[in-house]
Amino acid sequence: xxxxxxxGAAIYQVYxxxxxxxxxxxxxxxxxxxxxxxxxxxxxxxxVWLTPWYPxxxxxxxxxxxxxxxxxxxxxxxxxxxxxIAEAHELGIKVIIDVxxxxxxxxxxxxxxxxxxxxxxxxxxxxxxxxxxGDWKSIFGGPxxxxxxxxxxxxxxxxxxxxxxxxxxxxxxxxxxxxxxxxFDRGVDGIRIDSAAVLVKDFDGGDPDGxxxxxxxxxxxRGWRRLAEEYDDRIFIGEVWFPxxxxxxxYLRPDEMHTAFNFDFLACPWDAAALRHSIQExxxxxxxxxxxxxxxxxxxxxARVVTRxxxxxxxxxxxxxxxxxxxxxxxxxxxxxxxxxLAMALPGGVYIYQGEELGLPEVDDIPGDLxxxxxxxxxxxxxxxxxxxxxxxxxxxxxxxxxxGTGEPWLPQPEAWNKLTAEAQAQDLGSMLTLxxxxxxxxxxxxxxxxxxxxxxxxxxxxxxxxxxxTCLVNLGSEPVRLPPHETVLLASGPxxxxxxxxxxxxxxx
Length: 510
Ligand code: NOJ
Ligand code: CA
Fold this sequence. Notes:
Blueprint lengths: L9 E5 L15 H6 L1 H7 L3 E4 L27 H13 L3 E6 L9 H9 L11 E2 L14 E3 L5 E3 L14 H16 L4 E4 L23 H13 L5 E4 L6 H6 L8 E2 L2 H5 L4 H15 L7 E3 L8 H4 L20 H17 L3 E5 L21 H4 L43 H5 L5 H15 L5 E3 L6 E6 L4 E5 L5 E2 L6 E4 L7 E2 L3 E5 L1
Parallel strand pairs: 1-2, 1-11, 2-3, 3-7, 7-8, 8-9, 10-11
Antiparallel strand pairs: 4-6, 5-6, 12-13, 13-14, 14-18, 15-17, 16-18
Helix pairs in contact: 5-6, 11-14
The site of 1-deoxynojirimycin (NOJ) has 9 residues, from loops.
């Protein structure tokens, strides 16, 4: 692949606990992932991004990292991780891992040392310890300060098991430089930066949001970029959630991150005007910076797209998750097929969260006592949270565990997933899996990095062409629309009606 592989890459997100279980304990692992690498190569993705694979008590699904230089034992070993990187590379698949710089696990050596060393110690300066708690709230609900036995309080923007680092301490900067080198030296091609905008805190301004987008956070990423430039072709992808495109864009300046997730597109309702606006804004933000946009429909924090697009309100809002809100899954399925063709046709990179290619719906009926997301207890058991999009994948067979492994999966799989296994869909030309595979194959030659030209169309239709001559049309209106002149239909998300594109359907023409 060329030096700029990442500019137009299709990146598959692996949530390791739920991808494939190699040793029968019901938890996904590296052995399972390695055994399924041929599936990913066959699917046709250019890269995988793995959510955290480090030793972790799993208070927040691995985003509570106890050791940034090792592998979670239930997932495997460092040696296996190295083998995985090598095997992925042999198949032409780049490897992106997740680094969590805002907070560690409370079980990390540094935090344990800080607890033992006591108030005023240098070890406590690596975190935010105070004699009095502040009034910030945790993003997962409840207060953001927790008291330790000697009376001091420490800050955690997320769960209490996730103490925040003090990024005014040079030791913290040094530590993360070492961690980045550790993984770049092992061949990792890219790093997804967790909660990238909240590292630096302003306690004094009285702002309840005084941790978001403080100016000094950019110095952190400038330092990281300089480090990455010492290696060949390594990239950063920022998890940066902002409604404000101008602030978002600052993270993509040429001496900062290479790309960032486009959550504006993810949060958009299934509505032509809203999507067109989001796409136009995205292009306008990225083009002057020379940074490729990314197109994201879902991830491990968000309700599955099939379910979302079947609801009355199809937008997404982290603050109002709408867990359990009824959905017309047939409608959502049809729309998510069209959305997949839209996302894959747009200029830049595209992210595919595991299971999207199988059209999995959100699992809304996980019993409360099996739920693992800290949002559930921290919301006083009012917000079920993110487990419903993290259910282990169905690979094959007619009943759970559907070839995920041999043991009982860590979250229960719905019986109805017998129709959605990768095995069942591989045989079916009309399946979501076949749609993704075909689209990704076409995308390799004709789409990815570049720009688009809008075509004149009815307001409820999105229509644009790409440099290769491929035209993408998506009909979000209630009536079928006539196809523009073309030579061939390369791919459609659903059956066409003669020369007409039905509602909630997308087509690629040449
Ligand atoms: C964003 C991650 O995607 C999410 O899963 C996690 O809970 C928070 N950051 C905290 O690390
Ligand atoms: Ca396992």
